[in-house]
Amino acid sequence: MSDLDYLCPQCRTTLAAVARGDFDTWECKDGHGVGITLTEAYGHFQEDEIRAIWQAAKSAPQSSLKSPVLGQPMVAVTVAVDDDEVEGNQAGGSHLVTLDVAPAEQFLWFHVVDFEAMPADLPNPAPSAEELAKLEQIRAQSREAVAADAKRQESPESDFGYRFGSKAAALLNLTGFMKKLGAVAGKPLERR
Ligand SMILES: [Zn+2]
């Protein structure tokens, strides 16, 4: 899938690219966790949940885990996830999920149990015009980041206020975006 090595935030072995349904994940062979990129999250989680995770990441405490590409400290984020798929479930069904986030790499890392508990089967696979516009923005930023990375260390901030930390991270997010866009437009996937 990629010539980039993502390392397990816990044990630093190379993560394997695993497809869980239509979810492209990065997983540790020893079961330490399940990782996804931000663009992959956009395709599967509700936008308000992603926003909540990203917002919390800005002030979250450092965790003991290291980011998969750069080996920087990750942050531990706890958010409430609303499992609102069951109609008439007035009790809410909201539960807390703790995950590790590598903001610069736009990478989310879950315990396997927590990942499987995420309400991933949300009913609207077709993104709104607003979401498409946001994805277009991410794509443009990824391109800028890749171009900028070739020239200098600095790269532009994403709309979440974090820089793309590396060409690797930007490429991973761009790849996820292109796949999503291809699926949305009903066009063949663009392959690198
Ligand atoms: Zn591991």
List the helices and strands and how they pair.
Blueprint: E1 16-20, E2 23-27, E3 34-37, H1 38-44, H2 47-57, E4 62-66, E5 73-82, E6 94-102, E7 107-110, H3 112-117, H4 129-151, H5 167-185
Antiparallel strand pairs: 1-2, 2-3, 3-7, 4-5, 5-6, 6-7
The protein binds zinc ion.
What does this structure look like?
The protein is α+β, with helices and mostly antiparallel strands and 192 residues long. The chain has 2 domains: 16-117, no CATH class; 129-185. Helix content is 34%, strand content 22%. The chain has 5 helices and 7 strands, in the order E-E-E-H-H-E-E-E-E-H-H-H. The chain has helices at 38-44, 47-57, 112-117, 129-151, 167-185, and strands at residues 16-20, 23-27, 34-37, 62-66, 73-82, 94-102, 107-110. The chain has a 7-stranded antiparallel sheet. Helix 1 runs parallel beside helix 5. The radius of gyration is 16 Å and the shape is globular. The N and C termini lie close together (9 Å). Mean pLDDT is 75; it is low at 85-91, 153-164 and 184-192. Bound molecules: zinc ion. Zinc ion (ZN) binds next to loops.
What are the defining features of this structure?
192 residues
Helix/strand-derived category reads alpha+beta
Number of strand segments: 7
Helical residue percent band: 25-40%
Number of helices: 5
Radius of gyration: 16 Å
Shape: globular
Kindly, what is the distance between the CA atoms of the first and last residues, rounded to a whole number of angstroms? 9 Å
Tell me the number of structural domains. 2
Bound molecules: zinc ion
Q: What string, H for helix and E for strand, traces the elements in order?
A: EEEHHEEEEHHH
Low-pLDDT runs: 85-91, 153-164, 184-192
Biggest sheet strand line-up: 1-2-3-7-6-5-4
Provide the β-strand percentage band. 15-25%
The biggest beta sheet, please? 7 strands, antiparallel
What is the residue-averaged pLDDT? 75
